[in-house]
Amino acid sequence: MAVAATSETGARPSRAGRRLAAPSWVGTVPFLAYVAIFLLLPTGIVVVDALKNPNGAWAFSNVTELGNSLVRGYFIGSFKLCLLSSVLGAVLGAILAYAIASGNPDGVVRRLYLAASGVLAQFGGVTLAFAFQVLIGPAVGLLFHASWYYDFPWGIGLIYTYFQIPLMVLVFLPAIDGVKVQWREASENLGASAWQYWRYVGGPLLTPAFLGGLLLLFANALSAFATIQAWENQIAYIVPQQISTALSSEVGLSNVNVADLLALGMVIMVAIVMTGYALLQRRAARWLR
Amino acid sequence: MKLSYRYAAAGVAAAALFAAAGCSSSSSSGSGSSGSSVNWANETSASAGGGMSALVKAAKAEGTLNVIALPPTWANYGTIISTFEKDYGIKVNSALPDGTSQQEVDAVKTENGTAKAPDVLDIGMAVALANTSLFAPYEVSTWSSIPTAQKAPNGLWVQDYGGYMAVGYSSKFGTITSLNDLLSPKFKNAVALNGNPTSANAALNGVMMASLAEGGSASSISDGVSFFGKLKAAGNFSPVSATGATIKAGTTPVVFNWDYLNLPSYVGVTNWKVFIPANAVLGGYYAQTINKNAPHPAAARLWEEFLYSQSATGGQNLWLQGGARPVEQTAMTSDGSIDTSAASKLPAVTGTPTFLSPSQATDAANYLAANWAKAVS
Q: Are the Cβ atoms of A139 and B253 closer than 8 angstroms?
């Protein structure tokens, strides 16, 4: 994450003495092996199986299935849900992180919020969906009833923010902490207004970290499955739900290759989003170079 | 078993298949009808092995029966097991009570040859038909009371109990007399299926039942899909999958599910009613099979005799007391051996039951794959 860029302030890396003459790439072996086994290999299997038919023969025509309007619908659904919940989560989470950062750094409020964020960022799945059903569910909600909760993606998007906001707080707070009070004082001494400070100093400093957080939230929402499956599963709205049907349908619609193809589609979707992120990031971080 | 209740009564086609293959092993082979040297693993009926008393004696000598995936609250299995133990003094080991049909078959394979292997299975039809090579043929003494379409001709599998697709609902809504009642505004966000019909068999049958109620036939599920489209347009369709927890919490106050899973006693809600629309009686049954390498072959066969017994405390009436419809119900109703008070508690039914053939189930699934999401989102 780009957070480190702003929180490191001038501590120069010190070099340890050269005692062992191991090639410099040796240290990366465990990481590269890990990536190869748990990222590249499964991705490769997904890609290969997506292009085969159930009998194991090559079937490149499978790819045309991604253009099928039903399948396109699942991807559009996933994209809508991820965008809604990540933008909401990132904006609200950033505001909350700013509020926490401007409080006492050793205060009980900060510790309370951080602890709560750490827990709530992991709170999802069936438990979360059921909690919302009981609290605000259309049929019984203890607080109030509103049927729009089942209108995709609004209701489920709202529920996703429940874990997206805390996650944003956790990843964005270090970036805000890295913004020195002195910078604000300096710009005020030079006669900058609050707007000018945020426009020319605070904003550019924090934008890369914010975009990084946004991307993380997007990916987090993309892979979330159990929550929506418990909230509304009689219709498949997003890709992971349809992958589940393709893997486990007991009415004869299971097809592992279709599941692989949908997974491949998700990989492509992440690749597109990552590219967009990289372009944005490059522009946002231009001043750093 | 419980989760994969599929291809209800796929019997007809399969039965035809077995008949065509001519592999029916006659029940009266009569080999080895004398004494204690009978190998019950090879006997295809009690009489072939020397009669019921010989079977009871051999089973008692084995002393144990291994069953699997039988939840005590499901279809009265708790009572069925304890009655069997009491009647015959045979200990029943009940493994993995909440297991699925596939897990039952997996256990037969992985524990093959050990004393722990399941002797008998209560299994979903789709899984049964896919694994017939693991089973031993056996015809119980009440064989003739079981409808032909609900058993393999040689007894490799025999359907045991089942139910009809029904609408369970909270009594706060009054009384439902037609599916179209569900379109009224008072059912806002209330009506749920038990899963996604492109994935779960009970949900597919729920849509098919609506199709029959709307005047469609089992060959096409399209009327059912348009009914759920109307429910959605009225704002009454709930996308939440119904479970015991959602029913208790009131999140899904109207549920399409098999009637024996939709009874107040099963869902654990007292103000709960069950309705089966006229001429939309859609059935689904489980089947019994015997492990061909059962560690307790005589006890396994005695268990089957007990389950298909028509006595007041036999398996058929005990299932009925659990809200499930025993496979010999029609025969028992005409000969008077049925527990009439238990039978009268079953949801009332008007019309002849329909059972989906495997090809009808496949057609329905394919139609749903293309049209379900469009109709209800």
A: yes
Q: How many CB atoms lie within 10 A of CB A26?
A: 9
Provide the shortest C-alpha distance from residue A227 to chain B (in Å): 11
Number of domains in chain A: 1
Does B112 reside within a domain?
yes
Which of B246, B361, B373 lies closest to A236 in CB terms?
A: B373
Range of the domain at A260: 69-288
pLDDT at position A289 is 64
How far is Cα B305 from Cα B294, in angstroms, rounded to an integer? 16
Q: Are residues B243 and B157 in the same domain?
A: no
Query: What is the C-alpha separation between B250 and B268, in angstroms, rounded?
Result: 12
What is the span of the domain harbouring residue B364? 165-282+350-376
Q: Are residues B298 and B261 in the same domain?
A: no
Residue whose pair of structure tokens reads 């997206």 in the numeric block: A164
Q: Inter-chain contact A236–B362, Cβ cutoff 8 Å?
A: no
Please report whether residue A274 resides in a domain: yes
Q: Which chain A residue has the Cα nearest residue B193?
A: A234
Looking at the domain assignment, is residue A97 inside a domain?
yes
HSE-CB of B50 using CA atoms within 13 angstroms: 18
- Residue A102 sits in a domain whose CATH number is 1.10.3720.10
B82 and B175 together in one domain: no
pLDDT (mean) for B21-49: 64
Does the pLDDT at position A14 exceed 80?
A: no
Q: Identify the three-state secondary structure at position A123.
A: coil
- By Cβ distance, the residue of B126, B196, B364 closest to A235 is B196
Instruction: List CB contacts (< 8 A) between B368 and chain A.
Output: 251, 253
The pLDDT tens digits for B95-109 are 988 777 778 988 999
Q: What is the pLDDT of residues A248-280, one digit of tens each?
A: 777 777 788 888 999 999 999 999 988 988 888
pLDDT value of position A87: 96
| DSSP type of residue B150 | G
A252 vs B369: CB contact, 8 Å cut-off?
no
In a domain, B259, yes or no: yes
Query: A235 and chain B: CB distance < 8 Å anywhere?
Result: yes
Picking from A74, A237, A250, A255 by the largest number of B CB atoms within 10 A of its own CB, the best residue to mutate is: A250
What is the C-alpha separation between B232 and A152, in angstroms, rounded?
Answer: 13
Q: What is the ipTM of this complex?
A: 0.76
Do B219 and B361 sit in the same domain of this protein?
Answer: yes
Residue count of chain B:
377
Decide if A130 touches B, using CB distance below 8 A: yes
**CATH code of the domain containing B214:** 3.40.190.10
The alpha-helical segments, DSSP class H, found in chain A are 3-7, 29-35, 41-50, 69-101, 108-120, 125-136, 154-177, 181-189, 194-197, 203-223, 226-231, 239-248, 256-284
